[in-house]
Structures are given as C-alpha cells and as structure tokens.
Write a structure and sequence with these properties.
By secondary structure, the protein is of the alpha/beta class. 41% of the residues lie in helices and 17% in strands. It has 13 helices and twelve strands. Helix 6 crosses helix 13.
C-alpha cells in the first residue's frame, strides 16, 4: 500500500489525524498514534517525500555544480569523487540528498545555475571552478539561496568559501627548485579564466621577486586540465629557444602527458627537466621517476565543505556554529625524484 489517503481509509480515520500521527504531532493521543504506526508498517505505507517537502518549503536536497564537457570527460582526475564522498557523509547525518549538477562547458555557468534556482531544485548549493568575476555568486546571493564556493573569487560579498592553498604550493615549489639551482622555471596554468589560475600566477610572480628572478611571460603556458594539456605544455616548453630547466603544474593529470612528451623527446623528467606536480593521485603514483607533488585528504575537504554550508543555513546553524567560513585548505609536500638539480 502507498499513500496516506488509502491508509486513512483502512483505519477509518481522517487523513489529517493520520498525518499528525505519522509526524509525531502532540495533539494525537498515544493509542491512536501507535495504531497508525502499526498499520503503516503492516501495509507498507510509503510517505510522499516530494509532497511533504513542498508543504514544508524544502527540497531536502543540496546541489553541487561541476563542469562537464569533452575536457572534463577525458580527465581521469578523481578530485570530485573524493570531495563528494566527504560532502555526502555530512548531508547523510541530516537525511539530505546531494544532487550533482554538471554544467556543460559550452553553457554560461551563471545561466545554468539561474535555471536550477528558478526551478527550486535545491535548498542550498556548492559551486566549484570559481572565476575571477563570478556572476553565480551575485545570483545566488540575490536569490537568498545558501551556498558555499569551492574556490575564491574576486566577486565581493559575504559568502562562505574554502579554497586550496595555491599560493603555498607555488611558493614551496619555487623555493625548492631555486634551492636546487633552477633559475628558469615554467608553470602550467589552466586554459580558461578560473580563479585558481590567477591565484597561482600571482603567487608565482611573488616567488620570483622574492628570489630576485625576472618574470618571463613565455614561461607561463596555458593548457587544458588533462593529460593532453600536459603534453601540450611540454611541447611548448621544448619549442622555446631558451628552454626552462623546471616546470610546476597546476593539475594532477598534466604530469602524465608532460612525462610522455619529454620521453618522446629523449628527455628524462627529474634529470633533464625538473617537474613538480600539483596533487598526488592514483595515476601519478605510477609515474617514473616518482613525482614530487602535494597531498590532501579530499574526503576531509568534502566534510569541511558540507559542514560550512550547513553552518550558513538557519535550520542547521545551531548544529554547526562556525559562522561565515573562509578557509585556505593546506596541502602537504610529498618529495619525489622528479625535481632533480639543475644541470650545469
């Protein structure tokens, strides 16, 4: 049996009484409540969650926007899988559903998010791949929909965010490479205008200034966040008349393509060109020589995201009294053999 109407007919009592009994309302006597609960269990009553959510003005769902498209589809990075695992752990405590919202790269992200908001699909949202100027932030703020950004943005506003420590990554990478004698250090950045690329570039410039090294625009190479992107970065590096002796990458999968192109050219990573990858992952662990890169717990990051979002939602703020969360997430340097000293 499904449906509260049929359950009320079976018990020969009003729908209102059955509903109040099922929801634990105090105006229903205990004998009636037990009778309703027993009948519901016996007859297989299933609550209409959509209808209940509509009446309560809540969907009991949280959206998580991620980019999709040919570049993302060909990227074997497991970043979002790990983060989503942590987010679901938090939402599961409160019987909230996580809805993954893949935005095609061909579509304007703000229009996509605006459509989801207009449909009233979720009670809150996590947005990712934040841009330098991100219209989604203003849109969600104006819609008064609770949200958190996975990534900082230049768009002002009192919204929560958690971002990876990109400045720390590039600073430690450049410091390590300079200490090994490298002076021409290239960086591989994303080919789009996501804000992490600007943060990484600003940190790179500051690190060069700190070491008294000149900034050479030809050493800033942009490519997709994939193996193919890493292959392209290596190809462009090798074509430079004054080739860099080291490179720092911003995506895990770039290292795989970069290794391949260097090997095709008869060059050894770590010997002929030093390489520092961004994040340790399943694929990078099998590279030879072992990749110097950074480590973080994606699950812990997801837990922090979920709790910070709920802290901004009135229904859960007392459970997570964190206030407005704005946090830089640290990464741990994992030394490998890919960033050997400069030759000569």
């Amino acid at each position: 049996m499904k449906g509260i109407r049929r359950l009320a007919q079976h018990l020969d009592i009003s729908i209102g009484t059955v509903s109040r009994a099922l929801n634990g309302k105090p105006d229903v006597n205990e004998k009636t409540r037990q009778r309703v609960l027993a009948a519901a269990a016996e007859l297989g009553y299933v609550a209409n969650q959509a209808g209940r959510s509509l009446r309560e003005g809540s969907t009991k769902a949280i959206g998580f926007t991620i980019e999709s498209g040919t570049d993302a589809a060909g990227n074997g990075d497991n970043f979002f899988f790990g983060v989503i695992d942590g987010v679901q752990t938090v939402f599961g405590r409160h019987h909230l559903d996580l809805v993954v919202l893949p935005c095609p790269t061909e579509e304007d992200p703000s229009q996509y998010v605006g459509r989801m908001v207009a449909r009233g699909m979720v009670d809150g949202m996590i947005i990712s791949a934040t841009h330098r100027r991100d219209a989604r932030i203003e849109l969600l703020a104006n819609a008064r929909l609770p949200f958190i950004a996975l990534g900082r943005s230049g768009t002002v506003g009192p919204h929560p965010w958690i971002d990876l420590d990109f400045e720390g990554v590039i600073n430690r990478s450049v410091d390590r490479l300079v200490a090994k004698g490298h002076r021409r250090i290239a960086i591989g950045l994303p080919g789009n205008d996501v804000n992490l690329g600007f943060v990484f570039l600003d940190g790179y410039r500051a690190a060069l200034v700190r070491h008294g090294l000149p900034f050479d625009p030809s050493l800033v190479i942009r490519a997709g966040s994939s193996e193919q992107g890493g292959y392209q970065i290596a190809h462009e590096m090798l074509a430079l008349p004054d080739r860099p002796t080291a490179v720092v990458l911003i995506y895990e999968m770039m290292a795989i393509g970069l290794y391949r192109r260097l090997n095709e050219a008869g060059l050894r990573p770590g010997h002929d060109i030093a390489v520092v990858g961004f994040r340790e992952g399943p694929q990078s662990r099998f590279l030879s020589p072992s990749l110097t890169c950074f480590r973080l717990s994606l699950r812990d990051l997801g837990v922090a995201l979920g709790e910070a979002l709920l802290a901004s939602m009135p229904a859960y703020a007392d459970i997570y009294p964190q206030g407005l969360v704005r946090r830089i997430w640290p990464l741990e340097l994992i030394p490998g053999d890919s960033d050997g000293p400069a030759r000569g």
